[in-house]
Please model this.
Amino acid sequence: MVPVYGARYGQLSGAASLREIESGLQSHEARLYHLHAKPIKRSTLADANALRPAAVFTGLFAELMKQAHRGLRRSLAETVYLIDSTTLPLNRLSADWARFSAKLCGAKAHFMLDAEAEVPVYMAVTPAKVSDITAAKAMPIEAGATYVFDLGYYDYGWWARLDEAGCRIVTRLKANTPLKIVEERAVPADGPILSDRLGFLPARQAKSRKNPYGDPVREVRVSIESGKILRILSNDLDASAGEIAALYKSRWEIELFFRWVKQNLKIKSFLGVSENAIRIQIAIALIVYLLLKLAFKAQKAVMTLLTFTRLVKANLMQLKRIDWLLSKEPLEPSDTPQMTFRCF
Model:
């Protein structure tokens, strides 16, 4: 329990070291009774980083993902999952497990994000040298859902698995991938959609790899604001070209999720160097994200998650009703908190 609340405090307070977490909690010793807790020693946090299995925290994160996702799901036909990864630079002290070049070390966090609920439904951490498609093949597949992903997941065999499970695929074709066209469809004139065609992928993805995906696919060519032309691929032969293009555009939501977590939670620098310590800190940052999302959705007073997060940080060691975070009036002794936020 002690390392858990200490780590969450570290995430929300932006502490840069274990020593800073220790001194910060010592300064709030009088308020720790809310947790039936005491100030934490730096050595206790260091021991937890080294010895407590990261699975304790990733397991808690998995349970919170289910809770955050519960009640938000639509029918499978409307469920859109975004798949991507983000790289987390590490220093040379993590070289024993995270080296991917002579001078650089790093880890990758691989995510599957529910596009509408804006919550992750799957997360895995690997060394940065592990390819995106290798990590994706370990992700669970939900039959009937829509999966949107980019060029890092370019594997005809994996696409065939998704297609066989009844999933809709929306991704990009590489510029040099030929398509055997069998049908041209009309598109609106003077719009961003340049063409809408049906065809077949090449018989081989590489010289020695036979393509197991033999069904027809859809190619929608779209001109974006920068002038670049995207070749969007889908196995959905019935939806409008505009819907296919909009689904691919929704992939930007996972980039915004990465940016939000990195900017507002401590996930760009780390308090430990071992693989276990890195995995713990990533899991705890995401646990804090889900707690913030759940608390934010349970109130009506604050309109944006960013504002809510800033208010939580400003009232980190206070016991207040969530709907009073913006209150300018002091609380009366007779007021009984109903829905309160505790940072731990």
Observations:
- The chain has two domains: 2-54+271-341, 56-259.
